[in-house]
Amino acid sequence: MLTEKELIYQIKNRVLVVLNNIKFLKVIKIQEEVSSKDMGQIDLLIKVQTKNNEKYSLIFEIKTNGQPRFARMAVGKLKEIVSQNKKYYGVFASTYISKETVKICLDNNVGSIDIGGNCFFNFDSVYVNIEGKPNPFPSKNPLKTLFYSKSSRVIRVLLSNPKKAWFIKDLSEEAGVSIGQAFKVKEKLLEEEYIKESQEYELKKFILQKPEVLLNDWTKNYSYKKNIIKNYYSLDNVKKIENKIVDYFNLKKIKYAFTLTSGASLVAPFLRYNKVFFYTNGNIEKIAKDLNFKEVPTGANISILKPYDEGIFYKLQQIKNVIVVSNIQLYLDLKSYRERGEEAAEFLYEQRIVRSW
């Protein structure tokens, strides 16, 4: 990762490449780390002259992290400075600027640029828009790490309790993870602006603010196939199979939960199906033997899933004396299931999930 001074140097060079390609624009002054009474501390100041001999001061706020949370703080500072003079133009700069950050800048009439070459300038007669350049310093811990095993427990808790404000200790206990793990996830969620902190308490609580975006991002990084799956066949029809499963698990007192088509048929009953899906933390081979299910390589009408993480059993729901995974887990599974799963997922989303938000 670049130091702050190295980043300022690289941003300056990248800006000059862009500006020098504008024939009617002339760079007349460059200053790094400027301090003044009017503007305070400025990372980079570049003065230019347009074809109409108008002079503008491009004021750069440069951050090593270009995520939305940091962009908003920088944009706030730039707007305050620019409001003092019509010939000031604020620009947010970083190593890499995401589409979300670009939108924040656009909404506030602030320019943007990163060292990869993505940029947006719009002042006087100048308009430059370059996008699609890759991140030269991709994170070693990309967004998808939010949705790994124990980290996903925190996400599941937040999405299942979308209106609740949390202290980090309470969240860690509810999710069954360490305070350190919960804190790391919280920091990442703050960076991406999925949550916001309350100012009402000395120890800050935080609450989910973009559940639909967070859930959508999770679906892109999830597949029900990440669980251990064993496929079986039975001569019985699906309803008889499901009844046998419920009776068996109630008798044995083993944890289970229906999902996919079996879950959707109870939670959002409009789907015809011919295959049973359920999770269990029990011994799959013994369960299958006890229920007289035959393991098959093809043509299965029963899939038994061993959860990749115990968080899958969070917020189980009981419907007609049958245990089903939470609506959030059911949605995730259905979205990754090709055989009409997406249609059932959208029905569940509109009828159950959105209404809880």
Task: Explain the overall architecture.
The chain has 357 residues and is an alpha+beta fold. The chain has three domains: 4-130, Trna Endonuclease, Chain: A, domain 1, CATH 3.40.1350; 143-220, Winged helix-like DNA-binding domain superfamily/Winged helix DNA-binding domain (Arc Repressor Mutant, subunit A, Orthogonal Bundle); 224-356, Beta Polymerase, domain 2. Helix content is 39%, strand content 24%. It has twelve helices and 16 strands. The chain has helices at 4-20, 68-82, 99-107, 149-160, 168-175, 179-191, 211-220, 238-252, 260-267, 284-290, 327-335, 341-356; strands at residues 26-36, 40-49, 55-63, 88-94, 111-114, 119-123, 126-130, 195-197, 206-208, 228-233, 256-258, 276-280, 294-295, 302-306, 317-319, 322-324. The protein has a seven-stranded mixed beta sheet, with helices on both faces. Strands 11-12-14-10-13 form a five-stranded mixed beta sheet. The chain has a two-stranded antiparallel ribbon with strand order 8-9. Strand 6 and strand 7 form a beta hairpin. It is elongated and about 85 Å long. The two termini are 39 Å apart. The mean pLDDT is 91.
